[in-house]
Amino acid sequence: MITSSARTTVFDIDGTLCFDGRTIDRRILAALDACERAGHQLVFASARPVRDLLPVLDGAFPTAMLIGGNGSLVSVDGQVQARAAFEAGELGRLLAEAERFRAGYLADGPWDYAYTGPADHPIRGRVDQGGLARRVELAELPAVVKFLVVDATDLTALAEAGRGLGMTVNHHLDEAIIDFAPGTTNKWEALTSLGIDAYNAFGNDINDLDLLRNARHSVRVGTHPGLDGVARVTVAAEPEAVAAEISRLAEAPGR
Question: Fewer CB in 10 Å around end: N or C, the chain?
Fold first, then answer.
């Protein structure tokens, strides 16, 4: 458990800090550095597994805590731990639904992954960019912490089936993908499990809903309608605007 502090600030990655799927703009990096120097404990929380967060950060902010897989993975002091995984029966039921809708998927273990989707799907460009893991068969993963469907005959029906199984389901209509996580796992739940209950947050998508809703100061990047009325501040989804808002937070006394 780490010490909770109102000077903890949590950042989603894709669509919040990273706009090309691979890098973070130098202006945002400079603002993050100023935020850290102002005394903020930085936390990066993403739908990506920890493995795929590391190349985007590219060695920056080595003391930051990482939350991956929408809360199913955490990395503190460089030690990656799976804090939530699908139970065998639960995974079996999800796989049966995936087969019913002829789904292609990306299944993440604590480090390695299995992939059955199209070879040219855009998600492939964001998976294991650093060449840190192995692509294996699903049965070879010691645990499955995240299950991302990248194509299916009926994505909406498959998402509803997952909800009926009691899973956390984020259906990203703009990307035509469905993100399944075990139980009630999300970024905010991961934070609270580590003793962090006072924090600031930046996010852009529906999987940031609880993270933003429970923050003492929350910033929505972009205009996702599912976050209407949730965040205290909304900024444009562009590096200059995001960097300026991070800098304002760094300069704000007591925030």
Answer: N
Match 């809708």 to its residue by tokens: 101
pLDDT tens by residue, 2-16: 344 458 999 999 999
Contact 80, 111 (CB under 8 A): yes
How far the first Cα of the chain sits from its last, in Å, is 22
Burial 17-46 (b: 16+ CB within 10 A, else e): bbbebeebbebbbebbebbbebebbbbbbb
What's the whole-model pTM score?
A: 0.85
- For 79, 204, 220, the CA distances from 50, given in Å and listed in that order, are 10, 19, 23
| Residues 105-129 pLDDT 10s | 999 999 999 999 999 999 998 899 9
Residue-level length of the chain: 255
Q: How is the beta sheet containing 168-172 ordered, strand by strand?
A: 113-115, 104-108, 146-151, 177-181, 168-172
Cβ atoms of 199 and 10 closer than 8 Å: yes
Contacts of 165 (CB under 8 A, 6+ apart): 90, 93, 94, 97
**Residue 210, both tokens:** 């609880």
Burial of residue 98 (CB within 10 Å: 0-12, 13-18, 19+) is: buried
Q: How far is CA 207 from the centre of its chain?
A: 8
Exposed / middle / buried, residue 212 (Cβ in 10 Å: 0-12, 13-18, 19+): buried
Question: Could you tell me how far CA 187 lies from the centroid of its own chain?
Answer: 7
**E strand or H helix at 177, and its extent?**
strand 177-181
